[in-house]
Amino acid sequence: MPYGLHCNRTSKKNRNKFFFFIVFYSCFRGGLSAFAAQPDFYDALVIKARNGDCQPILSWLHDEQERRRLSDREIADEIEINAWIGHDSDIAALWPHVAGRSLSVHTKLVVARAYRNLKQWQQALVLFRQAGADHSSDEGEHSQYLMTLADAHFFKEALAQGTDFAQDSGSSRAYLTLSYIQKAAGLRQDAWQSATKAYSLDPHSKEAGFAYLDANDENRIIAGELVVVAHLPLSSMRQRQVELAQGAEYVRNALIPAQTEKNRFVLADRTLSYYQGLLLRYRKDPNAKGDLRVAQIDRLGALLARYQMRELISEYEALKAEGPVPAYAQNWVATAYLYLHQPMKAAAIWKQIINLSDRESVNLYFTALVESGQLREAKALAAKLEQTVPYQTAIYGLPTRQDNDQWLDVQQMRVTLQQNQNRLSRARDQAEHLAGTASTNQELAVELAGVYIERGWPRKAEDTLKRAEYLDPSNIGLESQQGLDALDLQDWRKATLLARDVIGRVPEEETAQRLSRALRIHKMMELDIEGDKGINSDSPVTGAHDFNLRALLYSMPLHYNWRIFAGVGYNNSHFEEGTGTDRVQIVGIEYRNRNNWISLEGDHHAYGHGDAYGGVLSGWHDFDDHWRLGGSLARLGEHIPLRALRNNVTGSTGALYVLWRENEKRQVRLDFADSRFSDSNNRQAYNLLAQQRIFSSARWLLDFTPSVSSSHNTVRNTFYYNPHQDLAILPSITAQEILYRRYEMQWSQTFEIGEGVYIERGYPNKAITSFSYGQNFQLNDTLAFGASVIWDKRPYDGERQRNLAISFNINYRF
């Protein structure tokens, strides 16, 4: 090998000796050349080339070649120097003219590499084999041959020899070679495994490190890259790419539900901490502006995993103002909007980016449509999915098929749609079918219990939830639904325990928050006000310009079941004999537990004939989800009209009622009251009231509400109206329209119209006509109020008289 290319193998002390030996040997063979004639000059050119200035020697060799035939050593030098500066095409052009020369194995390897660089695989393989690289013990030479074999698409041979090479050698280079071959053959996962093995054998090797990074990129594997790049001389751009890829991997992992509740935010917190460091560095680097935006966008996913929804929205708004935000990040933003009860914004985002194959996003999009009142769009989405989502899906490589979870999602969507369209009987049928055919699906049981609660069957819901406990008794959705059901059943202790458990474990979970909020409202004080004002009336019962008001303030619950209350009442009206007024002060105690309600109040009355004391003991008992028995004993209660008190007639009443309620569509109530007046009059009153749902939709409810009432009085010609015997039959139609609804907020209007007959003993039968219109507002779950205008025309002692009044009510919890 020429001295100029390998002087680095010779010490400086022996350089001249080696040089003169070559000159002497050349002269002895008689092959004197320009190199022999000018040793110092040529040596200087070689040294320049070794120092990076290669053009002088190449120019000199080119000129010499025009005058004479270059020696083998000069040819070898020219090939080697051209390889140094990457002139592979010059080497390929030179080689056909010198291929027959007695050149060294090393020179042939250099030429083979040049052909390989030019992707002339066949010529490269021929030279590699001539140089013995196919069986060489030198790992570098053998590695290049095997990689060229793969480049030439001789994959079977390359894979076999590469596998043997890796197994026999066990070195990092051998596994890198095998990884290269596998990648060329399209075996990306095998290539990654081999690159991983190579890196593990020599973690400080730059070649192994870069190969490992490339294999990770090919297989979209991020784990561990930050450790690798710490030992590699990467550019700042490449460094940021690796950091961003690692951050994105952290975000994906953080969004996966944790195996334990205790560790659910560990990955999210680590991810946010990681991005905090990145953002600090990228903001200081003017070249990292684009990467800074990528980091800010990806960080939104970590905020979502940490339930920091408001910060997520704030960051998104800032990013959106600077430019478009990719769809994957908009999906996170829509989820945050939905969590913050802004379903309109969430649905608008998903409408633009939704991918129907993304099961989780589709379910959330459907929820956003339902919660924003876009039921038509939600129904269309469910119908589209039902047409495209099969009941079962094929498993690749297996003859069996597996149940499709998304198909079940579509069926649950149908149940939800029926609920929101007030078709609860259909919702119940579908939910029962799903829960019955998938007995190991706890979510379906919880959903079925929700339908039962909505239909007014809390005990049936309780049984369903109890049976579902065996699957996972500590499931948050199950416990939250059990807590809401316990509130309906007035089982305050159970509801409190369940709420404490779920909110203590996962306070960010929406179902847990719903239960906790419902329990907090139950524990609030309550103000209840109701009243009515006569506008235009000539009724002998109510008088003219009558005004009635009753306001009660309830304390917070005491020892779960007790509440004390106090309030006032005021009744005023104008009669033929004068004005009647009754001022009432009220104080009492209320007891509520499962299946029972009891209230005891004491009243002080001032109605113009001195002070009088009265009271009411009332209560009811539920036997099951359908039957209730209630009653009351009252002194100076609501059954004693103001006109009687105006004329110093008092009385007591005993009342009893039976209520049968099949569901939200149908119920019947029968009341009986027996009143004893101080003027010896004894009044017995009966009332039958029924309700039958005729039509229901998302906005409208239409009910048939007939009533039949009758009374009998034993004394005639009293100061107050007391027909000897009467009967009123009044069929009515009640319609309610939901004008606006969003979560707990609701605005509705109600129409009621009735036409019937009034029969009074001793007088001709005459018609009863009634109409009312009301509006009700529920601003949130603590404040509700409404007002109604009532007009009716009915006979009293044979004369039809009109009555126009307004009624109002307010309920406020604080």
Mind explaining what this structure looks like?
The chain is α+β, with helices and mostly antiparallel strands. Among the domains are: 421-522, Tetratricopeptide repeat domain (Serine Threonine Protein Phosphatase 5, Tetratricopeptide repeat); 543-813, Porin (Beta Barrel), CATH 2.40.160. The strands form two sheets. It has an 18-stranded antiparallel beta sheet that branches. The protein has a two-stranded antiparallel ribbon with strand order 1-2. The protein is rod-shaped, with a radius of gyration of 46 Å. Residues 1-37 have low confidence and may be disordered.
Helix and strand composition category = alpha+beta
Largest sheet, strands/sense/barrel = 18 strands, antiparallel
Query: Number of helical runs?
Result: 31
CATH topology category name of the domain at 543-813: Porin
Indicate the low-confidence ranges by residue numbers: 1-37
Name of the top-level CATH class of the domain at 543-813 = Mainly Beta
InterPro entries: PGA_export_porin_PgaA, PgaA_barrel, TPR-like_helical_dom_sf
Pfam families: PgaA_barrel (PF21197)
Keywords: Coiled coil
GO molecular function: poly-beta-1,6-N-acetyl-D-glucosamine transmembrane transporter activity
Features:
single chain; 814 residues; alpha+beta; Serine Threonine Protein Phosphatase 5, Tetratricopeptide repeat; Porin; 18-stranded antiparallel β-sheet; 31 helices; 27% strand; rod-shaped; disordered N terminus; coiled coil; PgaA membrane beta barrel domain-containing protein; PgaA_barrel; poly-beta-1,6-N-acetyl-D-glucosamine transmembrane transporter activity
